[in-house]
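Reviewer 2 asked us to include a model.

Predict the structure of this chain.
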Amino acid sequence: MNIDDQIEQIFSNVLTEIISIVSGFYLEVQSQDRDNSFDDITAVMSLCGKENILIFISAKEKDIRILCSFITGIPQEEVTKADMEDTLCELVNMTAGSAKLRLGGAEFTLSPPFSISGSDMSIAVKNKTQIVSKVLGNHEISVKLKVVH
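Predicted model (structure tokens):
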């Protein structure tokens, strides 16, 4: 398996495993393409090392609200925007940390996670830059995973 396929598989598997563990939701790949769009809130981290990688996890507010409620126990109607941003930042942090270990651990440095609000964003990359873009979901929620390397 080449590094592109390995990165794609690792990040996708890690995110679905983490969401399943922390919320009980099992997500499957619903679509895969080079879609550069985002949903309402996006959490971002970078892994720098032998391969430089950016990871984005994005979701609509209604989906983050559901996830946050299941993870924290806060009733959905009481979940704040800060709670949703924190939930996505924690998901991207756990995903990047687990992926780091699977990719070689000490060979990577992680950035702090941060979130961006607003869906009117896109990624523009240079030639030879790979973008993995997947929508992971089930009948209740969906999240977008983008890995740029």
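Residues 81-103 form the longest helix (23 residues). The domain at 3-148 is CATH 3.40.1550.10 (Chemotaxis protein chec). We have added this to the supplementary material.
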